[in-house]
Amino acid sequence: MARPDLNLLFALDALLEEGSVMGAARRMNLSPPAMSRTLSRIRDTLDDPVFVQVGRKLLPTPRAYALREQVRAAVEQATQVLSSNTEIDLLSLERSFNVRATDEFVNVHLGHLLEAMVKEMPKAMLRLSPEEDDMDDDALRSGRIDLFISASRKLAPDIHVQPLFTTHFVGVAREHHPIFDEDISLERFVRWDHINVSRRGKGRSNLDALLQASGLQRNVALVVSNPYTALFALHDSDLLLPLPKHLASSAKAAGLAIRVFDLPVPMETAMLVQAWHMRLQTDPAHQWLRTTIHRLCTEDDAQTAKRSKL
């Protein structure tokens, strides 16, 4: 049995309310001929004239009159189902968010995000999901993760993307590293062994391609999955660590005995974004999470710019 066209339900409601094809056409944003064709389809579906012409008005048949309240109730219920429910009590909402986030965000903004959640969505839980070998698009689409925060990359059309902040790479070494005895040239930069941070265990990065273009090559002696292990590995070694400036500055502010220096080879500025699947676009709780994250990142960028002018 073929499913009925539910658009006819809305059209029938408009006809019953307006009592004319012209009025129903205006209400449905249709032309009068299109509304007349819709009325014909309603008659065929119900196997009833539905309306009879009396002068310039359409009067409902006994069948249509009997259906009037049922049609109105069905339309109201359907409208409620399809309408976005923007009224939500965040204070009592129990919700878990799976977020795959880059270390730059976790290091700089996670504490502030948790503070905001305690105040506005205290029963929610944030679960930081590790980076895996799956495609980020598929993880968002399947619901394995609800939000993805990382460097900008090409994602599928059904994934919404919003810029958060920019960062660039700097060099990090222990406080009394001999590299600081002289100007840091490319040749001196590759003289010492390096640490590479990669959650997937990669020994090369964009930096290696830039060095190769200059006819040089660095030796990566250590690959770690997170920057915190890398930072502590600097203390008792002469290893060098390329790291996003946000992370390096935070580590230095935390009291680690390190020094930060400009890389002798310019690397492109990285744009960090948050991304989510379109099915969560109108979800009120997810909207709060995205809006709060964007606000925190915007405020941090503003404060950083202010400090740089002082």
UniProtKB/TrEMBL annotation:
UniProt domain HTH lysR-type: residue ranges: 4-61
InterPro entries membership: LysR-type_TF, LysR_HTH_N, LysR_subst-bd, WH-like_DNA-bd_sf, WH_DNA-bd_sf
CDD domains the UniProt entry points to: PBP2_DntR_like_1
Keywords associated with the record: DNA-binding, Transcription, Transcription regulation
Family, as annotated: Belongs to the LysR transcriptional regulatory family.
Annotated protein name in UniProt: LysR family transcriptional regulator
